[in-house]
Design a protein that fits this description.
elongated; four-stranded parallel beta sheet; Rossmann fold; disordered N terminus; Alpha-Beta Plaits; six-stranded mixed beta sheet; alpha/beta; 19% strand; 463 residues; 16 helices; 14 strands
Length: 463
């Protein structure tokens, strides 16, 4: 819950949603001709608009605000001075005063000029969509790295918007859109901000080097990496916990495992979480949970979080987790793929995972099943449904560290070698001859290669 001075009550927000004719997309691939199709298209457009509004409300709620009022406007194009036009701005001023709003939040990015003019015309602070998302990131950043990344993104956003921002800058750290470790009185010291930005970049580069060193140590012993990606609130963290609790090695020994935060709030996960799991083939895999993506994700965030998102770039397989219960799942998929393209990872193998099937009616389940005929895996991370099938698909898709079937002849005195093969590979055959153990095993090439000195001549078949 955000704080404004000593007052612990949530800030009251006036939400402003703006749609422009030039931004509207056709919802069907062919031109709509029949009257019935026009009605269907209109209904689909209305549902599309409602879903966007609901996502906007969830963002505001995730920032800790209470919705005081909502205003919508449809325009042919944006007004360069105020985005909305002078008449609508006057109406906003009246609504803001009547609803006792502490701030006005636009579901659209504002230019420096628009932001300055709106703050001059309205009785309270004004923030745009990017500031709102940055604020949510600031709330959820827990590690030093995450805090550095958020601060860098905030300062890079603020730097070109300093002129005339006295109303907002004077309250930095005191409410939505101003929370975080950013400097105070930014409008009076541009050079100070620029120096801080340079320092943050150096600090993050050091973090990136440390991550690269850690990754090199991991890659010295080849362990494939699998990364969860997807739209925010698609259930990635719940799926991460469902997999690691069942297939993580510590869970097998203790029955307990520390998971990641599961929350219906957007961007609950900012800092990546890595966990080793074991597949049915006995191969070990590193599973990583990553920050969720969203429509119009600020470019400054993608840039600032590039060090964190290196886990995505280095993964052998991406699990694209989608919310099967969302009416916007196709649009969400497109938005995720836009960010993946920016990260230059669209070429990587991807498995589509349609999550939250427990929320579907039988009719909706039939529709989703038809849509997934191309190979998507249907799961409910919350109920544990479909997890085994997902793990089998991951096992089958891995190219790194392939599964080999090989024959070994090992003296019984080599207890470490016998234990390692029995623990890390599937024993197909075992036969005792004197003090020797003849074994046929199927396991990861990296494991079997350690005991090549015990290999029999007929070895070498890939499974």
């Amino acid at each position: 819950m955000p704080f404004n001075g000593a007052d612990s009550s949530p800030e009251r927000a006036l939400l402003v949603s703006v749609a422009f004719s030039s931004e509207r997309r056709s919802l069907t691939p062919q031109a709509v001709q029949a009257r019935g199709a026009v009605r269907a298209s209109s209904a689909a457009a209305a549902d599309h608009h409602d879903s966007r509004l609901e996502e906007f409300r969830e963002l505001v709620t995730s920032a800790g605000a209470a919705v005081a009022a909502e205003v919508e406007q449809h325009r042919p194009k944006a007004d360069p001075a105020t985005l909305l036009g002078s008449g609508k701005v006057q109406e906003l001023a009246v609504v803001a005063s009547a609803s006792d709003a502490d701030l006005v939040i636009f579901d659209h990015d504002l230019s420096a000029t628009q932001l300055r003019n709106l703050e001059d015309a309205l009785p309270c602070r004004v923030i745009d969509r990017t500031q709102l998302i940055l604020d949510i990131f600031a709330r959820h950043a827990r590690t030093r790295e995450g805090q550095l990344q958020v601060e860098l993104a905030q300062l890079e956003y603020m730097l070109p918007r300093l002129t005339g921002r006295g109303k907002a800058m004077s309250q930095l750290g005191g409410g939505i859109g101003t929370r975080g470790p950013g400097e105070t009185q930014l409008e009076t010291d541009r050079r100070r901000i620029q120096r801080r930005v340079l320092q943050l970049r150096k600090d993050l580069e050091a973090v990136r080097r440390t991550r690269a060193q850690q990754r090199q140590r991991r890659e010295a012993v080849p362990v494939p990496a699998v990364a969860l990606v997807g739209y925010t609130n698609a259930g990635k963290s719940t799926l991460f916990n469902a997999i690691t609790q069942r297939f993580g090695e510590p869970a097998r020994r203790t029955g307990k495992r520390e998971g990641v935060l599961e929350s219906a709030r957007m961007f609950a996960t900012l800092d990546p979480k890595l966990s080793a799991i074991q597949l049915a083939s006995r191969r070990k895999v590193l599973l990583s949970d990553t920050v969720g993506f969203i429509r119009d994700l600020p470019h400054t965030l993608v840039t600032s979080f590039r060090a964190t998102l290196e886990e995505v770039r280095k993964a052998e397989i991406l699990l694209h987790v989608r919310d099967a219960s969302s009416d916007m799942r196709d649009e969400h998929k497109a938005e995720v793929e836009k960010v993946l393209a920016e990260l230059e990872v669209l070429h990587k193998p991807r498995l589509e995972v349609l999550n939250k099937v427990d929320l579907l009616t039988p009719e909706e389940m039939d529709v989703v099943a038809r849509e997934s005929a191309g190979g998507a895996i249907l799961v409910s991370a919350k109920e544990g449904v479909g997890i085994d099938a997902l793990m089998e698909r991951i096992d089958g898709e891995l190219m790194q560290d392939p599964i080999l079937e090989q024959h070994f002849q090992i003296p019984q005195s080599e207890g470490d070698a016998l234990a390692a093969l029995e623990g890390g590979a599937v024993v197909r055959q075992r036969k005792y001859e004197g003090n020797l153990v003849r074994m046929t095993v199927a396991g990861p090439a990296s494991l079997l290669g350690r005991y090549r000195r015990f290999r029999r001549a007929e070895s070498g078949k890939q499974v």
